[in-house]
Amino acid sequence: MEVLQALTVLFTAMVKFLFAGAVAYSLGFTMLETMALTACGGAMGTLIFFYAGTWVLERFRRRYVRRRQERIDKGLPPKPIFTRTNRWIVRVKQGYGFWGLSVICPPILSIPVVAVLCAKYFRHDRRTLPTMISAVAGWSVVLSLAWSFLR
User: Fold this and answer.
1) What are phi and psi of 110, to 5 degrees?
2) What are the sequence ranges of the domains in the chain?
3) How far is the CA of 111 from the CAs of 17, 70, 130, 147, in angstroms?
4) In terms of DSSP H, where are the helices of the chain?
5) Which bin fits 125, alpha (ψ -120 to 50), beta or left (φ > 0)?
6) Residue 110 neighbours by CB under 8 Å, 6+ apart
7) d(CA 114, CA 48)
């Protein structure tokens, strides 16, 4: 039963990191267990979504290049690159940058979103994954302490 509870906290930390501490405390875990479970879950989520995001984004890039070439071969103009969503993403990247996205955003935007955005824009920077995992560990301590006062 406790294994299922620990897996619940790990999965919650992977998907919605902000509320993982509350879930852990509601299941009866101590502060150290909560810190460890949320840090491990967040780190696993970061790794999974970063590498899965890299793979998916590469597939999308190849499909985009192929479709663009097909349109050009048919004599049609290529579709516009800048959409509203693309502009918003570029604004986030320029506004927050590598450090802001890696350090500030995991509890706010959730780990899957941050990991995919980092995979899109910063996958070639070797500091990306260590910084993201360190930020998740730091946020795990901060959020575990915060949720311990609120329970």
Assistant:
1) 85, 150
2) 2-150
3) 7, 36, 14, 18
4) 2-15, 20-26, 31-73, 84-99, 106-109, 111-122, 128-150
5) beta
6) 15, 16, 17, 18
7) 12
Comparing CA positions, the residue from 103, 111, 106, 110 lying closest to residue 131 is 103
The pTM assigned to this predicted structure is 0.83
pLDDT in tens, 52-84: 999 999 999 999 899 989 988 888 888 777 778
Q: Which residue has the tokens 């918003």?
A: 88
For residues 14 and 42, is the Cβ–Cβ distance under 8 A? yes
Please report, as a single letter, which amino acid is at residue 117. L
Over the chain, what is the mean pLDDT? 89
d(CA 80, CA 121): 20
Q: What is the pLDDT of residues 2-42, one digit of tens each?
A: 889 999 999 999 999 999 999 999 999 999 999 999 999 99
Decide if 127 contacts 97 (C-beta within 8 A): no
What is the rounded distance in angstroms from the CA atom of residue 37 to the CA atom of residue 7?
Answer: 9
